[in-house]
Amino acid sequence: MTSSSRGCSRTAQRFLYSSRPTFVPRTPLRTRTPCIQTPSSRGYAVAASTFKPLDGPSSHFPHVSSMPPVSPSPGATTYKISTGIILSRPPLLTETATPFEKAFYLYQKRLNERLVLPFTRYFYHKKDQPADLEWKVKVKERNGVAARDIGGYRAYGEEGWNDEVLIGGQEEKVAEWDNIAGKLVDEGMGEDLEKVKLESREGEADKRSLARKMDETVYLVVKGKEKTVDREGKEVKVDVWEFPRGDMVGNEVLHTAAQRILAQTAGENMNTWIVGHIPIGSLTIKPSKKFGREAEKVFYMKGRIMAGQADLKGNAFGKEDFMWLTRKEIEELVTKRFWSQVGGMLGGR
Length: 349
Fold this sequence. Notes:
Number of helices: 10
Domain Large ribosomal subunit protein mL46 N-terminal: 79-206
Protein name: Large ribosomal subunit protein mL46
Main location: mitochondrion
Helix content: 25-40%
Distance between the termini: 84 Å
Family: Belongs to the mitochondrion-specific ribosomal protein mL46 family.
Oligomer: single chain
GO cellular component, one term: mitochondrial inner membrane
Largest sheet: 8 strands, mixed
Number of strands: 8
């Protein structure tokens, strides 16, 4: 206990137990905190006045009584679980380079020519030998440069600083791979050999062929019939393109059901495999009492085809036609509602 606390308690004791009158000065003492506080007490009581509630608004609301009774919300929709498969063929060729990529690669090749030592001709070809004579003939076409794919650029010449290609220039066309490949075939061909024809990157135009769009991924889509209503309100059947799908049977799991549905839709003349046991996306189909359509959720599995071809003859789902299409072609073919749900499942290339 501090000295200030002891002094305060002694003063309080003297004030309480003293029988003599205590002189109280007129001017109150200014203290920071009182030493002791006694609770105040009242020696009388006053009867409380009678409580009278205020006049409030009427509890009767005419606009509420005129409203119809609230019906309970309907129960949650029960969805039927189905499965489908997105069967794809991966790209067979590298993607075609853009004009910017072609210009970038050509610049890197020319920059490499400026950083390395020049080609040592006599280290590889002896003077006045057949190989040296052949070199003299071919090097004239390349402006005295050993490399074929830099467009005749001479890194150690007077124009070595000018290594950038102009847009639409002749050097850009000379450095393209198609021209280089054609010259390689011509140089390697003898007098008695037939000219080899290079295969095109585009492939066949037939959309049923797997040998099309070889630098992009193509997906299998099938055509069926679906009931709908036209503008006049009549019920009609329209062609619908979609991925193969169907109901699950018994205790099937998604990946085994997808294999069965693919075989029942496109035949068994395909060497395919399911990538994983987890779906890559889902499609929600709303119910329709008019067309007798149940609410359905379709979980799509990812599949790859390595060989073979689809065959819809005698399929179990009534599909009429099939095509192998790219992502962009599918977007132009299907409805916007269908694409909004399945577009994210397809790859960018």
